[in-house]
Amino acid sequence: MRESIISIQDVSFTYEYKNVLDHITLDIPKGSFMGLIGPNGGGKTTLIKLLLGELRPTSGSITLFNTPIGTYKDWHKIGFVSQKSNSFNKEFPATVYEVVSMGLTAKIGYLRFFNQKHKAKILHAIDLVGMREYAYENIGNLSGGQQQRVFIARSLVNDPELLILDEPTVGVDTENVQRFYELLHDLNKNHGITLLLVTHDTGTMTEYATDIACLNRTLHFHGEPKEYVTLSEKDLSTVYGHSVSLMSHNH
Ligand code: ADP
C-alpha cells in the first residue's frame, strides 16, 4: 500500500446550484506522477482549488499530508504552477533569478535581504530546471517553454514535496512539450517530488505518469497508464461525451 500525500474522501462540490464534483474519492500516493485529465468543464480546476484550500467541499473531506485541510499549515510543502504563468512580455523588467527569488520572498518577506543560503537555493532551483545559463536574462526574452521552466524553479525554491501543475504546457511548442515532460520525470524520479498534473496532452503524459485520473463530474477512471491506454473508444466517449480516439504524440 502506497502512502498518500493527498486523500480525497467522497468529495462533492456545488457552485450555487451547479454540481461540478460528485462523490470523488481519490488518493495521491507519495512519489507518484499523477495525470489528471478529462473534458473542459469536467471539474479539474475546481478540484485543484479545493486541494489548495481556495474552495471548501460541499461535502466530504480532504487530507493533506495526513492533516485535515481545515487545520493544514505547511503550505510550503505544496508548490503550484498555474496554466498561464508564461505571459510575460518583452518589457517585463525581471531576470530569471529575480522571478525565482519571488518564490522565497513569499516566505521570508519582501523587506529582508537574501543571505548566501537563500542565493544558493535560488541558483539550485534554476539549475534543477536546466536554466542556469539564462539566470540573468530578462524573462520576457525567453520562449514559452523556458518561461514555464522558470515558474517551476520559482515553486522549487521552497523545496516542495508535492507540485501541482495546471495545464503547464499550454502555449509550449511540441518539441519543448517533450523536454518539459522529461524535466517533470526527472523531478519525480530523481528528486522525489510527487506530481499532480492537469493536462490535455494524454499521448505524451501516458509515457511518463505513474497514475491517471479521469474526471468528468465523477471520477470515471483511476489507474495506471497501461490500463488507460486499453480503454476502448466507447469507454472514452462515455467520459468525454463525444467520440474521441486515443492518439499518441508520435502518431
Ligand atoms: P475544468 O478545469 O475541467 O475545465 P472547471 O473546474 O473549470 O473544469 O469547471 C467545472 C464546471 O464548473 C464548469 O461547468 C464551469 O462552468 C463551472 N464553474 C467554474 N467556476 C465557476 C464559478 N466560479 N461559478 C459557477 N460555475 C463555475
Provide key terms for this protein.
251 residues, alpha/beta, Rossmann fold, six-stranded mixed beta sheet, disordered C terminus, binds adenosine-5'-diphosphate
Describe the fold and architecture.
There is one protein chain. The longest helix has 18 residues, at 174-191. With 251 residues, this protein is α/β, with parallel strands linked by helices. Helices cover 33% and strands 25% of the residues. The radius of gyration is 19 Å and the shape is globular. Helix 2 (96-108) crosses helix 3 and helix 2 runs parallel beside helix 4. The protein has helices at residues 44-51, 96-108, 116-128, 144-156, 174-191, 202-208, 225-228, 233-240; strands at residues 4-15, 18-29, 33-37, 59-64, 67-68, 78-81, 162-166, 194-198, 211-216, 218-223. The chain binds adenosine-5'-diphosphate. Adenosine-5'-diphosphate (ADP) binds next to strand 2 and helix 1.
Outline of this structure?
The chain is α/β, with parallel strands linked by helices.
Summarize the SSE layout with pairings.
Elements: E1 4-15, E2 18-29, E3 33-37, H1 44-51, E4 59-64, E5 67-68, E6 78-81, H2 96-108, H3 116-128, H4 144-156, E7 162-166, H5 174-191, E8 194-198, H6 202-208, E9 211-216, E10 218-223, H7 225-228, H8 233-240
The chain binds adenosine-5'-diphosphate (ADP).
The kinds of small molecule bound in this structure are: adenosine-5'-diphosphate
Please state roughly what percent of the residues sit in beta strands, choosing from under 5%, 5-15%, 15-25%, 25-35%, 35-45% or over 45%: 25-35%
The overall strand count is 10
Q: What profile does the largest beta sheet have?
A: 6 strands, mixed
- The radius of gyration computed from the alpha-carbon positions, rounded to a whole number of angstroms, is 19 Å
Number of helices: 8
**Would you tell me which CATH topology of the domain at 83-162 and 177-197 applies?**
Rossmann fold
Q: Which strand order do you get reading across the main beta sheet?
A: 6-7-8-3-9-10
Q: Compute the average pLDDT.
A: 87
Order of helical and strand elements: EEEHEEEHHHEHEHEEHH
